[in-house]
Amino acid sequence: MTITGAGESVTGNSVNYDRFQELKSFDESKAGVKGLVDAGITKIPRIFVRQPEDLAGDGHNSGDPTNTQITIPVIDLSDIVSRRADKVAGVRRAAEEVGFFQVVNHGIAERVLEDMLEAARGFHELPKEVKTDYYTRELMRKVKYVSNFDLYESRFANWRDTLFCVMGPEPLDPQELPLVCRDITIEYSKQVYKLGITLFELLSEALGLKPDHLRGLDCAKGHLLLSHYYPACPEPELTLGTTKHSDPDFLTILLQDHIGGLQVLYRNDYIDVPPVPGALVVNIGDLLQLISNDRFKSVEHRVLANQLGPRASVACFFTPHLHPSTMIYGPIKELLSEDSPPVYRETSLQDFIAYYDGKGLDGNSALTHFKLQR
């Protein structure tokens, strides 16, 4: 595998730098970012290098003193029956103001969380020749390993590899999952799905709707597990683990390890989402912002590259994704009034995903494309 360093080019002349060829070389290696680290690189390849203004931009460090006091809300679900109104109010505030919150006492045993993270690391640390069987950019493959789903669309590659598993709505054949993470992925999938149902009920009530309203719109019909792996980076100041983006789903539940690096864009500043032992991070997705007519916020977030590592995380995306559906999504009628007209046009899930994937993680929200012109 021939990959050029940050200060080099294919021909030795930066004017003649062939970015596509370098992307192709990286992709065809099927070794991902982990393969670069295993090769002992000390300079990151040029496809990962960002301009200083891109790294420091997006309003980062705008100096708003009020932001230094902001922390991501933590919601305790242990007494959800006896203090339901309080939980609904907490979820409403978090979903409307920050778009992110953490949940504790959520019912998933700490052993399951630890085993899931260990299995995620275990897959990415398999020998290359074992992992390459799963490496593909085939759209409809239910289990696949890939580095940068938008490698050829984005301006910069991210310092991250991913194992992508479609766990529903159709049951996944366990034999399709890598043995190293098979049993725990199935167990975690079942438990995180149950938690998702609870959260959708709270979110429905937070909108003033019946608890089963969002479920009735198929918001919980399907879910994907994305096991991300961020190797230690020799030049973290030159790149990002994940570009600024919002999620193309209804809801995301994230399991992150102790390394940290996740940041949320809040009032033009990045706020850290610190690892809390036993907690899961929850964030509103683009589709929930769309159907809530901007009541709930799908906020942009990113992951920093780090010399520490590897960092592992497992994101559960609640969305039917590419499963055939005739459902059309637009602002929920019960939320509309003369004072609150629809902000977005209706769209199918397939059209939304096609637009999101087609543009890649370019730092711009896909929701803008679906806004009604006024």
Automatic annotation (TrEMBL):
Keywords carried by this UniProt record: Iron, Metal-binding, Oxidoreductase
InterPro entries the UniProt entry points to: DIOX_N (IPR026992), IPNS-like_FE2OG_OXY (IPR044861), IPNS-like_sf (IPR027443), Oxoglu/Fe-dep_dioxygenase_dom (IPR005123)
One Pfam assignment: DIOX_N
SUPFAM superfamilies, per database record: Clavaminate synthase-like (SSF51197)
GO molecular function annotation: dioxygenase activity; metal ion binding
Annotated Fe2OG dioxygenase domain residues: 221-320
Residue intervals passing through the bilayer: none
Cofactor(s) required for function per UniProt: Fe cation
Classification via Gene3D superfamilies: B-lactam Antibiotic, Isopenicillin N Synthase, Chain
Similarity comment: family membership: Belongs to the iron/ascorbate-dependent oxidoreductase family.
Protein name, as recorded: Fe2OG dioxygenase domain-containing protein
